[in-house]
Design a protein that fits this description.
Elements (H helix, E strand, L loop, with lengths): L1 E2 L13 E2 L1 E4 L10 E4 L7 H10 L18 H18 L8 H11 L7 H30 L1
Antiparallel strand pairs: 1-2, 3-4
Length: about 150
């Protein structure tokens, strides 16, 4: 649960709470701290931006549809699974290859992460593609330094 520090400008009772969760799969330094949040609604927009400021969020990734507000939690979980897995593998943590375990940890912190089999398979495909690209790039750098 993400709790907002009260500010003297707070007008709404209960505005110290926002529908958001901190996500952490490992304490690897290369992994950014992620906050998964509901997209801001008209009455929570101020609280959303207050969270961004208070927690010094350097990047916002919005995976919801603007007009149709699907919650996007499955897509958010998919993004977080891919990002976390690739960063952990690149840091040398091969236990990250167990995507089922990663998804399970994410779901224990915010329900609904990676909702469908298609999203789960998408995670595997993107991680495999990313690692293949990384290996190819590493090989081409090694080949060019040997010449």
């Amino acid at each position: 649960m993400v709790v907002l520090k009260s500010t003297k400008d707070s007008k709404t009772p209960g505005s110290d709470y926002i529908n958001a969760s901190f996500l952490e799969v490992s304490s690897c330094e290369s992994n950014p701290r992620i906050i998964a949040a509901q997209g801001p609604l008209r009455h929570t927009c101020e609280d959303f931006w207050e969270m961004v400021i208070q927690y010094h969020c350097p990047l916002i990734v919005m995976l919801t549809q603007l007009m149709v507000t699907s919650a996007g939690i499955g897509r958010t979980g998919t993004f977080c699974t891919i990002l976390n897995t690739v960063l952990r593998i690149l840091a040398g943590n091969l236990t990250a290859l167990d995507l089922g375990h990663t998804v399970s940890i994410l779901r224990s912190q915010r329900m609904g992460m990676v909702e469908t089999m298609e999203q789960f398979l998408f995670c595997y495909n993107v991680v495999a593609d990313e690692l293949e690209d990384h290996i190819s790039h590493s090989k081409s750098i090694a080949d060019s330094t040997e010449s």
